[in-house]
Write a structure and sequence with these properties.
Shape of chain B: elongated
Structural class of chain B: alpha/beta
Number of strands of chain A: 11
Oligomer: heterodimer
Order of helices and strands of chain B: EHEHEHEEHEEHEHEHEHEHHH
Number of strands of chain B: 11
Bound molecules: iron/sulfur cluster
CATH class of the largest domain in chain B: Alpha Beta
CATH topology of the largest domain in chain B: Rossmann fold
CATH superfamily of the largest domain in chain B: P-loop containing nucleotide triphosphate hydrolases
Strand content of chain B: 25-35%
Distance between the termini of chain A: 10 Å
CATH class of the largest domain in chain A: Alpha Beta
Number of helices of chain B: 11
Number of domains of chain A: 2
Helix content of chain B: 25-40%
CATH architecture of the largest domain in chain B: 3-Layer(aba) Sandwich
Number of helices of chain A: 11
């Protein structure tokens, strides 16, 4: 079973929830893998402190042009939707950082002037945090395309439970993460920003067709509009976790609040039960 | 004209609250929200929309089931695993191919190579962008439809429109609320900007994300500086961030305390400096003065 933890807004406590849930499921005797799909800013490792056992570089195929074979027909330029290849006089230039690796130019070139070479997009690291399987992706600095790396991280799913820590937002990398999850937890906080971004995340989850529930973090700050919105939209609020400075402090030093803050685990129990129940 | 971009690497560090305060303090500027897939600045600035425009960013590609002969060419060439073999039958074949719009990147390669011309690929509307008026001056902002691509393109478009507007109105500053992360929308928000302010928090995650986003600004050769928000949450971590800045030749332009007034201001639809004149507001004002000084 795959559970994705997502949120429109960043900093709502996604990673805290995801890492603590992974450990709780594991302590309940289940086989668990935690996959950090926030490849732009992966943080799960700070809390789980895994032993990294394997490191794999992920590449995308990008075109290179053999200028001797090129007849400047512009067919490659025409097919490219990303302005990543252009004929300038007698030369055809590739702008690697714009290329989405669709392969169109390579297929369309009438003279086979185009071949493909690898561009590094990042690395995936694999390991274990105690019994919990761990993997995360690290996007190369300056690289714009994160979905291919998210895909590579997702291949590390376990045949037991997989906790997917999604990147914030509602565009491609978040969609890629939640796409085939069996349950999506949308984490929010009851503030105007939190609610606005929750609505966007709900739109995304509905569009993807995911089964989703809401978890309200720092539930006693802000106002009651988030609760009202969920009631009105008939969205289940599975858990509400009150604000606690001790959790914030524990987080700041990379601790797990289920171990560092007495009583914290109780708030997550309804989620653990739902996940375990969902698998049966 | 100067472009100031406020980014954070990590989400939830208080970037937008700081931008809203800057909007209140700064004179003669255009405000921009480049966090197009989770825009929040409008919640504080309550813009009155003057013009609403469609954003055509990608392509919508679909198989016309009536023409598909199920040859499988599209499935073979698609690099994004977007082709599914579960479309309706059509009298020629019992099953046709279908494109999963969520997996499709809109490259249109399948449409080009389909021997039956059974794939249609046309420009699609992925969002909207607006020019607005707020109590603190003009604002350009956008909304990317959810589950859409091309957030980078939209961020670039919004920035270009803001530049035009600033020229028209002879305003010499553009303040941009950037996106979290280090990927496509962030790169689009910062490339070519004059100055980047990175808002971080004193947590291991905050510091880790700061390091990556700082490296990004260096990679693109953009001048950047740091602000530590909620600095009193963990003084040791705040000092560790100071040390990181020092080692890397970056400046820490301000420390802002944790104050529940920040959330209260948000609930009231006000910026922090509008809502309170307490210490937290003074710290934001001091930060602003330092930013102006550094940018000049
Ligand atoms: S592979 Fe696709 S995106 Fe890259 S240059 Fe060729 S046509 Fe453009
Ligand atoms: S399609 Fe091939 S021959 Fe034509 S311009 Fe491009 S690289 Fe040159």
């Amino acid at each position: 079973m795959k559970v994705a933890i997502a949120s429109g807004k960043g900093g709502t406590g996604k990673t805290t929830l995801a890492t603590n849930l992974a450990i709780m499921l594991s302590r309940a005797g289940e086989k668990v893998a935690y996959l950090d799909c926030d490849v732009e800013e992966p943080n799960g490792h700070i809390f789980l402190k895994p032993n990294i056992e394997k490191r794999e570089t992920v590449y995308l195929p990008v075109p290179v042009v053999d200028q001797d074979k090129c007849i400047s027909c512009r067919k490659c330029e025409e097919i490219c939707q990303y302005n990543a290849i252009a004929c300038m006089g007698k030369k055809t230039l590739v702008f690697q950082e714009l290329c989405h690796a669709c392969g169109g130019c390579y297929l369309v070139c009438p003279t086979n002037a185009i071949s493909e070479t690898d561009r590094e997009v990042g690395v995936v690291e694999d390991g274990h945090a105690g019994p919990v399987g761990f993997a995360h992706g690290k996007l190369k600095i300056g690289e714009a395309l994160s979905p291919p790396l998210v895909k590579a991280v997702k291949q590390r799913a376990s045949d037991g439970f997989t906790v997917l820590d999604a990147p914030p937002g509602t565009s491609c990398p978040a969609v890629e993460t939640i796409m085939d999850a069996d349950l999506v937890l949308l984490v929010t906080e009851p503030t105007p920003f939190g609610l606005n971004d929750l609505k966007l995340a709900v739109d995304m989850a509905r569009q993807v067709g995911s089964l989703f529930v809401v978890v309200v973090n720092r539930s006693d700050i802000g106002d009651d509009k988030t609760r009202k919105y969920c009631d009105q939209q008939r969205i289940e609020v599975l858990a509400e976790i009150p604000n606690d400075r001790r959790v914030a402090v524990c987080y700041s030093t990379g601790g797990l609040p289920i171990d560092g803050v007495p009583g914290y685990a109780d708030y997550l129990l309804p989620i653990v039960e739902r996940i375990l129940g969902g698998a049966r | 004209m100067k472009e100031l971009v406020v980014i954070s690497g990590k989400g939830g560090t208080g970037k937008t609250s700081i931008v809203a305060s800057f909007a209140t303090i700064a004179q003669k500027k255009v405000l921009v929200d480049c966090d197009v897939d989770a825009a929040d600045l409008h919640l504080v600035l309550a813009p009155r929309i003057l013009s609403r425009n469609v954003f055509i960013g990608g392509r919508e590609t679909r198989v016309l089931p009536g023409h598909c002969t199920a040859c499988g060419k599209c499935e073979e060439i698609c690099r994004f695993d977007a082709i599914r073999f579960d479309g309706p039958g059509n009298g020629i074949v019992p099953k046709t191919f279908r494109i999963d719009p969520l997996a499709c990147e809109g490259c249109g390669v399948c449409a080009h190579f389909c021997a039956e011309n059974a794939i249609e690929s046309k420009p699609s509307q992925n969002g909207e962008w607006f020019v607005s008026e707020t109590r603190h001056g003009p604002m350009v902002h956008a909304r990317l439809y959810s589950a859409e691509e091309n957030s980078g393109k939209l961020a670039t478009l919004v920035r270009n429109e803001a530049k035009k507007l600033a020229e028209e109105k002879s305003l010499d500053l553009i303040i941009i609320d950037g996106a979290p992360g280090i990927g496509c929308p962030v790169i689009a928000s910062v490339t070519g900007a004059d100055f980047v302010l990175i808002v971080t928090e004193p947590t291991l995650s905050g510091k880790h994300d700061l390091e990556r986003v700082f490296e990004l600004t260096k990679y693109f050769g953009i001048k950047s500086a740091i602000c530590v928000n909620k600095f009193d949450l963990n003084i040791e971590m705040t000092e560790a961030i100071d040390a990181f800045a020092k080692d890397n030749g970056a400046k820490v332009l301000g420390r802002i305390r944790y104050d529940s007034a920040v959330t209260k201001a948000q609930v009231m639809g006000a910026s922090v400096v509008e809502y309170t004149s307490g210490a937290v507001a003074n710290e934001i004002k001091a930060l602003w003065r330092n930013v102006v000084y550094e940018m000049a």
